[in-house]
Sequence to fold (450 residues):
Amino acid sequence: MMLEQKVVKKVNQIKDFLWLGDVKKVREIIFDLVKTKGLAELRRSFEEVSRSFKVVQETSKDLTEERKGLRYELSLAKEFKERIKDPSKIREAVAGLLVLDQEELLRKLEGVELLCEVVQKPSYRYVIFENPPKYEVRALIEGVAECNIKELVRRLDEVGFKVLRVGGGRHVGVAAFSTQSYVEVWALPPKVSINVSLLSPEKEKARELGEMVMDALTS
Amino acid sequence: MSVARSLSVELNVSKYNVSLSLSKLSGLGKTLLKTIIDDVLKGRNLRPLKTLQIYPAFLDLYNVRYTEKWIEKLDVNFLKYHVGSKPKLNIPRRRLPRNLEYLSFKVFSGDVSGMIAESLFVYFLDYLGVNIDLVAHLRPYKGRQAAFVPDFAIWDGSLAAKSLISISNYQLPVYAEVKGSAQGMNELQLERALCQLAKIIQAPQDRGLVFMAYKDPRDLNFRGVVFEVER
Fold:
């Protein structure tokens, strides 16, 4: 795998953990990312390309009256190309700016505590956001590309839910009603969003339902 | 399940048959862009790529990872934009002076249209089987030190096999600029998208994509069109 691809994968992983609110894990991934060999070259390319682009923008102001439109941008691109002789520099710069942004994120996260408790299970981790009688369980699956929808439907049916299923393939959507609750599951691995509405609001009940859904999906 | 979330909407995505060459466009400019838009709106020079079954709830999950702004309830917004139902405002009975009108409808937001389009684009890539873990969203950096970057960079090598790119020896990453509109589409939007790609597509093997999600004026359905862009 190319270095740039590794960077992009990590950046997307970071975004998933930010969605979960797991800032501790986000820090870990960034620390891990910045240790990757070869990143210094990407950062240097970004600095060089960014600097050149600014110079081109500045000098082009004096050259043309037209400051927007395709013709202007193409003349800008031509100047830019003349300054950046090696096109691979631009490719590296794009990956480099992703790295720099993660480092900036790390600084922004200094002193930021976990917003809510992250529960770690063998094949997933989750958090619960409370807004009684509604609860949102956000979960991230580890190492599973597809969810076991059949098992989820079976388990929900077993505990007395009426189940409606939508989607297919990687996209899994399930809604389930019982006399006491309503559950909506949207899974796009690694992310799973579970919305629970309870007749008698109880966080523990929401947790129980969330874990049941996740255990079934990852079985 | 809430009605909005359980509904599915079809999105037809086509590709414009001719690659847009930036160097040729510099000479022909707006006339050619007008012709291209006219072609798309009349269904000419288009090759169907995929009909996606869009479940709006998933747009939320793509939105979280791949767009600059997080718009909550993007699924509901998408359906409203799809149906074209603008929020209606209450109008006082009192008459206004001549030449003045009450604001009776809120207009659709360009920001929301943009986020819908970006989410649809990644939905589309995922549906095609592109490895979306290798797709990076670059938009947040455009305004700062990196005005030369477009919305997305895609480091997946399978784009030619998926008919998105017409040459097999293209250079990674492929850059993409996305535009969305709750109305039709016009040459200005295409021009803006090409402007964003012009700076970064430098070498003969570099390729870019423009993805436009727009409301087709013929049947008012959302459609997607992909343009391949080369130097």
